[in-house]
């Protein structure tokens, strides 16, 4: 890497080693070699970060939204100016191709948006005789964010920007697989002049610092994106400690339904991009595609051509659009699912030939609905393309999952599109489009096992605020 990355913890406005001085090894997804030794936050470091946030909170909350916004917009500018450095950092550490790196623009937009976002307003009521009643919208205090590794900058910005804009102080724990981006942005926050303690950034493993945050009595809201399994653990820790409020974005197994009147070219192009992006490591990727039987064969042929033309290689090379899986665990998991797929369905693509942590784009067809690869989020460039005969059947199959993050329907028939969209069990439905999602001001989150609450430009600030009713007795009213 061109420059030595920051590897210390960011607590109370300063970078420092962990209290135990312990580090963990961060291998490069690109080379497999050691990229950095990163400080592992201890329970003591979590306590220190939360205490710093708690102390910084009153003064930060007392600023006007405009004055807080001035810090946010400075950080937005610094993130945007650092696009190249951030893209390289994520390419080296978790294999994200620089050619598909739109995260700095997306991330800085969050800070820019929330620097000027309308502050949530309370309401008033004259419905109780003798009273004027009002609600107050207030920040909660200390917000914790636990983020994953697949798009670390976007998740950082999506959670931190609205939490800070709403007047809270934040402690963020990055994923042990991708800690460098968050530390890089902490450094930018330092340059932007944020008051000490308003934003704290920790690196480390989930069961240690993640669990300490989830159980912390002074954390009032915890926003988490990650696996369903970890979501369940955090949920229990939150309940067993102080009933902190939870915002969860968990995984998906998103279906796309392609009807016979769809624009096939667009459907192929977009659905294959959805599952190929970041080597299939996005929560909303359409990993199940149901195609009307009359066009299934031609769709499959075209999809195969598009999907297998991915250019595998060095993610720092701008000509490459398909990098390695983020680490050995992810790589091994995906290979295991490919073996399972071969037992339950028909492999359409060639056998794996990629080396290192790379996975060749892989298609299965005719996979039974109850097969494991139809149910689990694989998080790799693996797609199942099954035929269907009727609208009813397609909807039933699409909904036959515990996940409910995203779904797509392709058809030129508006009545059908709206019938299907209204019955799909998903937090977001794309009509003649699919993920990655469009519409940053629309609520994003999961139905069923895919999450709790919604995040977006418009909804996120609300989730980081309390609503208080104030009942005012007025003499003579
Ligand atoms: O997730 P984890 P992993 C899915 C995807 C992927 C699988 C595993 O299917 O293959 O999850 O990925 C922290 N207490 N998604 O292992 O473990 C952890 O340190 C508190 C979907 O990375 O859930 C990290 O910061 N925190 C997804 C974060 O949780 C804990 C994005 C996510 O890690 C913890 C990522 C604990 N006990 C993975 N254990 C999406 N929705 O986009 C772990 N963590």
TrEMBL record:
Coiled coil: none
Highest taxon of source: Eukaryota
One Pfam family of this chain: Aldedh
Active site positions: 249
Keywords: Oxidoreductase
Gene Ontology MF terms: aldehyde dehydrogenase (NAD+) activity
Reaction it catalyzes: an aldehyde + NAD(+) + H2O = a carboxylate + NADH + 2 H(+)
InterPro entries on file: Ald_DH/histidinol_DH (IPR016161), Ald_DH_C (IPR016163), Ald_DH_CS_GLU (IPR029510), Ald_DH_N (IPR016162), Aldehyde_DH_dom (IPR015590)
Enzyme class: oxidoreductase
Residue ranges occupied by any Aldehyde dehydrogenase domain in the UniProt entry: 18-470
Keyword Oxidoreductase (UniProt): yes
Protein EC: 1.2.1.3
Family: Belongs to the aldehyde dehydrogenase family.
Protein name listed in UniProt: aldehyde dehydrogenase (NAD(+))
């Amino acid at each position: 890497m061109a420059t030595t990355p920051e590897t210390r913890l960011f607590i109370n406005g300063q970078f420092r080693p962990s209290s135990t001085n312990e580090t963990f090894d961060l291998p490069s997804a690109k080379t497999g070699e050691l990229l950095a030794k990163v400080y592992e936050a201890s329970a003591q470091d979590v306590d220190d970060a939360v205490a710093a946030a708690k102390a910084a909170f009153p003064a930060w909350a007392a600023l006007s939204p405009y004055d807080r916004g001035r810090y946010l917009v400075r950080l937005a500018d610094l993130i945007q100016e650092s696009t190249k450095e951030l893209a390289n950092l994520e390419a080296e550490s978790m294999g994200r191709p620089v050619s598909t790196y739109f995260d700095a623009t997306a991330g800085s937009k969050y800070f820019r948006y929330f620097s000027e976002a309308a502050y949530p307003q309370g309401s008033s009521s004259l419905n109780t005789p003798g009273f004027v009643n009002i609600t107050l919208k207030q920040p909660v205090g200390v917000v914790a964010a636990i983020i994953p590794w697949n798009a670390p900058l976007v998740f950082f910005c999506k959670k931190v920007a609205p939490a800070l804009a709403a007047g809270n102080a934040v402690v963020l724990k990055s994923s042990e697989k991708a800690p460098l981006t968050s530390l890089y942005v902490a450094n930018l926050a330092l340059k932007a002049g944020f008051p000490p303690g308003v934003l704290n950034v920790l690196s480390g493993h989930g069961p240690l610092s993640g669990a300490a945050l989830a159980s912390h009595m002074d954390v009032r809201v915890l926003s988490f994106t990650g696996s369903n399994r970890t979501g369940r653990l955090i949920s229990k820790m939150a309940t067993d400690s102080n009933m902190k409020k939870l915002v969860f974005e968990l995984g998906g197994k998103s279906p796309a339904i392609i009807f016979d009147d769809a624009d096939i070219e667009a459907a192929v192009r977009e659905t294959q991009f959805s599952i190929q992006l970041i080597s299939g490591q996005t929560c909303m990727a359409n990993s199940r595609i149901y195609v009307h039987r009359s066009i299934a064969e031609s769709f499959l042929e075209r999809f195969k051509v598009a999907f297998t033309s991915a250019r595998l290689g060095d993610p720092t090379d701008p000509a490459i659009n398909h990098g390695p899986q983020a680490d050995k665990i992810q790589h091994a998991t995906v290979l295991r699912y490919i073996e399972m797929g071969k037992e339950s369905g028909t492999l359409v693509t060639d056998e794996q030939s990629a080396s290192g942590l790379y996975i060749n784009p892989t298609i299965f067809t005719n996979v039974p609905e109850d097969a494991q690869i139809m149910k689990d989020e694989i998080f790799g460039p693996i797609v199942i393309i099954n035929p269907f005969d009727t609208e009813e059947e397609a909807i039933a199959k699409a909904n036959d999952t515990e996940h409910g993050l995203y779904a797509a329907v392709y058809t030129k028939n508006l009545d059908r599109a709206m019938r299907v969209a209204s019955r799909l069990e998903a937090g977001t439905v794309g009509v003649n489009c699919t993920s990655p999602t469009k519409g940053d001001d629309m609520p994003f989150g999961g139905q069923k096992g895919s999450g709790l609450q919604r995040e977006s430009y418009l909804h996120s600030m609300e989730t980081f605020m309390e609503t208080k009713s104030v009942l005012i007795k007025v003499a003579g009213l």
